Amino acid sequence: MLASAAILLADRYGMHMILLINIRSFYLDGRKRQIAFPLAGFLLTAGLLFFPVSPGPIILGDLLPAFTVLALVFNFTIVLTSGDRVTSAALKNRHLGTFALLTACIHFLFPSIVLI
Hey, what long-range contacts does 77-83 have (CB within 8 A, 24 or more apart)? Predict the structure, then answer.
């Protein structure tokens, strides 16, 4: 989730943090990486739903992080299927990137807050 947020926020904050531009160029360099991102996202979504953090319920454990990862999967699938992938509007979706970054930080710092 953090890598996806870094890719989406590279346009906005890339001049201040060069690491974001490096992560984005690493993603855009290979077609296999662009295919692996949505596939890994589907697996992560299933893992978040069916194998939650320990205090969560057995089914539908981490609903907010799973929803965020699923939104990122759809966004990167749009990037994968678009013709001009560098200037695609899906890669410039800074609102989704900010939401993913906040969800990841809250999920890792306070895992019981984002549980159902």
Answer: 77/38, 79/34, 80/34, 80/35, 80/37, 80/38
Specify the length of the chain in residues: 116
79 and 85 Cβ atoms separated by less than 8 Å: yes
Which one, of 32, 39, 4, lies nearest residue 20 by Cα? 4
pLDDT in tens, 55-67: 655 555 577 888 8
Question: Measured between alpha carbons, how far is 80 from 90 in angstroms, rounded to an integer?
Answer: 10
Report d(CA 108, CA 95) in Å as an integer: 20
CB of 99 closer than 8 Å to CB of 93: no
pTM for this model (two decimals): 0.77
Q: Which of 107, 41, 29 is nearest to 74 (CA)?
A: 41
3-state helix, strand, coil in the chain (%, to 5): 70, 0, 30
Contact 114, 108 (CB under 8 A): no
